[in-house]
Design brief:
Chains A, B: It comes from Natronoglomus mannanivorans. Chains A, B: Pfam families: ADH_N_2, ADH_zinc_N. Chains A, B: This is NADP-dependent oxidoreductase. The structure is a homodimer. Chain A has about 350 residues and is of the alpha/beta class. The first copy, chain A, folds into two domains: about 150 residues, Quinone Oxidoreductase, Chain A, domain 1; about 150 residues, NAD(P)-binding Rossmann-like Domain (Rossmann fold), CATH 3.40.50. Chain A contains nine helices and 16 strands. In chain A, the strands form three sheets. In chain A, strands 3, 4, 5, 6, 7, 15 and 16 form a seven-stranded mixed sheet that branches. A six-stranded parallel sheet of chain A has the order 10-9-8-11-12-14, with helices on both faces. A two-stranded antiparallel ribbon of chain A has the order 1-2. In chain A, helix 2 crosses helix 3 and helix 2 packs across helix 8. Chains A and B meet through strand 13, helix 7 and strand 14 of A and strand 13, helix 7 and strand 14 of B.
Amino acid sequence: MPEPNRRFVLAKRPDGKPDRETFERREEDVPEPEPGEALIRTLYLSVDPYMRGRMNAGESYAEPWAVGGPLRGGVVGEVVDANGSGFETGDIVTGNLEWADYATAPGSDLQPVDPDLAPISTALGVLGMPGRTAYFGTREVARPQPGDTFVVTGAAGAVGSVAGQLASMAGARVVGFAGSEEKVAFLEDDLGFDVGIDYSTTDDYRAALEDAAPDGVDAYFDNVGGEITDAVFTQLNVDARVAICGQISLYNAEELPTGPRKLPTLIEKRARVEGFLVGDFAPRFEEATRNLGRWVSAGDLEYRETVTEGLENAPEAFLGLFEGENIGKQLVKVGERDD
Amino acid sequence: MPEPNRRFVLAKRPDGKPDRETFERREEDVPEPEPGEALIRTLYLSVDPYMRGRMNAGESYAEPWAVGGPLRGGVVGEVVDANGSGFETGDIVTGNLEWADYATAPGSDLQPVDPDLAPISTALGVLGMPGRTAYFGTREVARPQPGDTFVVTGAAGAVGSVAGQLASMAGARVVGFAGSEEKVAFLEDDLGFDVGIDYSTTDDYRAALEDAAPDGVDAYFDNVGGEITDAVFTQLNVDARVAICGQISLYNAEELPTGPRKLPTLIEKRARVEGFLVGDFAPRFEEATRNLGRWVSAGDLEYRETVTEGLENAPEAFLGLFEGENIGKQLVKVGERDD
C-alpha cells in the first residue's frame, strides 16, 4: 500500500491542561499483521475524557500511556486484511486500537459490528462503552426509582445523555446540568429531561437546583465533580445514591483539588457514594448492548454525535471535550466505508 | 422530697467549640410524673459526640435542642415512682432522658435493664447505643472479610473499640488510630488490635498507615474525619467499603471545613462511602444487644468505661470528648444504686 499510515503518539506528559504539543503525529508504513491478526482501516475513532488519566505518569486503574508510545481508544474500522483472524475482509469491527489510519489486532481483541442494526458509529457511543457506562451506572449504582429526582452532570455528553433518559424510563424526574443554551434545549426538547440547567450562565448552582429539584435529590450521576457536585450534595435526600462516573472538571488540575468536606452530609442523609468503572460489568455487556439497541430501535432512546472530520484533528476533538464543545458522543471520522 | 432536682439546659448555642457557658445548671423541684409516667432517679448519664450537632440551630437528622430547653441523652436510672408506667419501684431502666438528677418518662419510652446480666452502665456503652452503632456499621456497612485490612478512627472510644474487635472477630487485620500512648496500649494489649497508631505523635498519617497496612485498606470505619481520613483514602483498595459513623474532628468547626476532593479516588478504586445512623437499624436492636451481650459474657469482647463523678461535672465530661480525654465509653455517674 503506497499511502503512509498516520498515527499519534504521546509527545510528553501534560502538566495540567493538555494542548497540541501533547501529541505527536508520525507517518509510517502501514503495519503488517502477524498471523491471526487482522489489519483494520479506521473509520471512526472515539475520544473520551478518561484518556486524560492515561496521560499521567501516576498509577491508575489503567496503565499510563508511555511517552513516545501510541495513544489508543475505541475504534470502528473495516478489516482490510483478515489474515486468519477469524474475520473476513470487509467486516466492520470495533476494538481498542491505536489513533491511526491503520492498526493491527488479534481477532480475539475485536468484536463484530452489524451495519444493518444501527449506524456503525453507534458502536462507540450509545451502543458502545459510553452507553454501557450509563446503563450500569444508572441501573446498578444510582438506581432511580419511580418518583425519585435524578440529577446528572455532563448531561448532554455521551454518557450523561443516556443516563438521564434511562432515569426517565425508570420513572424519575430528571434534571441535567449542561454548559450551553443549545445543550439545554437538546436535553429538554430532544431527550425529554424535565429540566436542563445551563451552568455556563448560572452563578448559583444551588439555587438553580432548588428550583429544578424542589423535592431534593434521590439519585445523582456525576460526570463532572467540583462546584456543581458540591451544590448537589447540599440537596441530597435521605438514602440518596450517588454514582461517581467521572470528574472531568478536575482532570486537568495542576494541584490536588480541594473543596468542602462532604462526609458529615453523608451521615445526616445516610447517603451512599460509589465510584464505578464500566469494565467491572463486562460479564453483562451483552445484556446492556441488547437492551440499549432495542430502545434505540424503538425510538425510546435518542442519541446525538458530534463528528470531527480527519484523523489529523483527533487532538483537537479530544481537547474540545474539556471545553464542552461536543453534544452527545464526540467522534473523529477517519475514513469512509467502502461500498 | 426535700432535695432539689439539678438539671442542665442549653444556655446558648455554641459558636464553634462549646464551653462551660454553653450549659446552665438549674435547681428545681423534683418533677411529678403524670399517670403512666415513671419518675426515674438518674444513676448514669451518657455523653456522646453526636450531641454537639443538636446544639446547632440548623436542621439535622434530629431536632435541634432549644435554647433554654433541656439537654437529653442516654440515662440508666432507678424507678422511684412507678405510677402506672408498667415498671415497678426499684426497677433499673434506660431511656433518653434529661441531664438531671430526676426525670419523668412514659413507660413506653423506657427499656428494662437486667442488673444480673452485666453491669448496668453497659446499657449506655457496649450493650447500648455505641455498641449497636459499632455492630451495624461494621457488619452491615464496612463489612470486613477474612484477610481484609480494617481501619478504624477514634479506635479507643466507645464505638471504635467495639468496631475494631468485631472486625477482628470477622478475620480482618485491624488498625486503629487513637490519640495517646495509653490508648494505643489499650488497643494492642487489651483489645487485640494488630496495630495502634498514636496520631498525637505522628506527623505523617499516610506513612504510618503504609507501615501498619502494607496491603492497603479494604474497610474503613470513620468516627473522626479530617486529615486522618484523607490519609486513609489514599490507601483504599479496589472495592473498599467506607462507613461514615462520625466526624468528630469537624463538629466544632466555625467555617465549612475543606479538604482534598476524594471523588476521583472513588472511581479508580470503585469504592463505596456510606453514611449511616444506628436508628435506621432499630428493628434489629434486639439481635445486636443479644449478640454483643453473648460476646461480652464469653470474654470475646472487651470494653472500658471512663466515669466522671457527679452530675455537676457532666458538661466537662462532654467537652472532654472533643479533647480525647476518655478511653472507652464516657459516662457520668449521677447517683448510687439503692441496695
